[in-house]
Amino acid sequence: MSRRRPHEDDDGYDRVYRKRRRVSENQEIEDRLESLILRVGEKSTSSLESNLEGLASVLEADLATFRSKILRILTDCAVKMPEKCTIYTTLVGLLNAKNYNFGGEFVEYMVRNFKDALKGCKWNTARYSLRFLADLVNCHVIAAVSLLQLLENMVDTAKEDGVPQEKPPPAHPTEIRTLTSPSSAVELNTTSVLANFATELERTKYTISDYVLWFQVRRDWYVFAVLATLPWVGRELYEKKEQGLEHLLISIEVFLGKRSKKHHAALRVWSCDTPHPQEEYLDCLWAQIRKLRQDNWAEKHIPRPYLAFDSILCEALQHNLPTMLPPPHHDSYIYPMPYVIFRMFDYTDCPEGPILPGAHSIERFLIEEHLHQIIEMHHLERKDWLVDNIALIYSIHLQSRVSVFESKQRLFVNFK
């Protein structure tokens, strides 16, 4: 017979039970916080501003216990839900106003993710991280001068030597996918041009992937990433650091003026430029940014919930980004390939109602960007893709929906 006192076993059971219950309760709280963060911005009976303010208060109260969990969820949302970028930057701005140390930790997390994405050739992740950091300037979390320095460092890659642009190393062949023209009146140019292109490759013994490396793809991506970020933060930089912004744009203009575009002919969709000019993607975005600059960086497509909290956010202390230099090129790095912007419609195709935005309107770029994000994030989840696609279509004017159609078609008339 055991000589242990009966209550010893009971005490052990109670300790284990209490520990399990505590772990279970913590897990429930973590799951609840994650659900609240992920669902912010969805349809609700309350306003978005009210939901953001309430969520910021809830998260602040739980920072002491669930700090690392909250940091991880927010940094994941920044790159995995880029369509809600300004919602999450506003949330981070409100948390920074309440807890400066947390704001600093979040910026460190985002910077680390940005660096890792560049080194890992995760180009979309890097671009979404850069956009998020830029939008934090609007929320008074990051100082404008430090962001401008980062953008300048990225554009400086255009001055690099020794990156792939002249004699490429051997690479595997790249598959080409084409699409039959939706209109019998317009002939696709892929057959004749790609035949000539293939002949040239055979003569030089390079594959298509090798040939693409001739084009300054590394420099192109860094300049593209900077230009694609400016619609979000251009106005703020214009108001606070106008001279620095102009210097940045001049550097980009010089690079684009010297840039080779030998690939343009091979990537054309239509056999002629009438009625729709076929612009190379970087040239088109540059024209859209110049138009945005002419409009004093004012656009109406991007939701900016942080404007409702300006009186709170402007009182918060800001953080400076550390000095960040793009990682040097490595032979194993594979950069995104160039493409031509697909156009099928102009203002004459929408004679009634609001005028269709021009090809160089920043709205065309933003709609295309949004759609590409939806496809990228949900291409394996057809139901989620359909829901987000319908939401996008019904959130814009009918005249802007042609941009959605053009964007979908471009995905099939591209090098993969």
Structure description:
The protein has 16 helices and no strands. Helix 2 (48-80) crosses helix 3 (85-98) and helix 5 runs parallel beside helix 9 (217-240). It folds into two domains: 18-165 and 215-338, Serine Threonine Protein Phosphatase 5, Tetratricopeptide repeat; 342-416. It is mostly helical. Residues 165-194, 203-215, 392-400 and 411-416 have low confidence and may be disordered. It has helices at 6-39, 48-80, 85-98, 100-119, 123-138, 144-155, 190-204, 208-212, 217-240, 242-258, 264-267, 281-294, 310-313, 362-378, 382-394, 401-410. The longest helix is centred in the first third of the chain and has 34 residues, at 6-39. It holds the Pfam family MIF4G. Residues 160-179 are annotated as: Disordered.
- Our Rg estimate from Cα atoms comes to 25 Å
Helix content: 55-70%
CATH architectural name of the largest domain: Alpha Horseshoe
State mean pLDDT (0 to 100 scale). 79
Question: Distance N terminus to C terminus?
Answer: 76 Å
Assembly type of the chains comes to single chain
Q: Give the overall silhouette.
A: globular
Q: How large is the count of helical segments?
A: 16
Order of helices and strands: HHHHHHHHHHHHHHHH
Short description:
The protein has helices at residues 6-39, 48-80, 85-98, 100-119, 123-138, 144-155, 190-204, 208-212, 217-240, 242-258, 264-267, 281-294, 310-313, 362-378, 382-394, 401-410. The protein is mainly alpha-helical. The longest helix has 34 residues, at 6-39.
